[in-house]
Amino acid sequence: MSKAFHLPSKEKLLVLQKNDRWRNWKTLDDQRRCILCDQTFSGREVIVTPNRSGKPILHCPTPDCVSTPREWVHLGDPLTEDDAWRDWLRTLDEPGATTSPLYDVLPKSNATHA
Asked: What pTM value is reported for the model?
């Protein structure tokens, strides 16, 4: 990894906002969880390095983790939070349920009721 940029807070927030195409950053105190190393961090902790042409690249702050914003999720994301995931499974398995979150997005010929 290249040597990290040391940016003033205002500039770092702008870099996060411009270079994270997957999630919005409102403040440097916004938190994300890395799905590769399972660590939670704030925008203040994100490491910013230049690529060969000088464009900022965002990195997970956990040592030896190679993730970039693509692998970061908001806290409470049902795909990564155990309690939220259990809630989804309970909803999907509930006898007599007329719909599930998946029912509305599946083609009607493939959707089934519990």
From this structure: 0.68
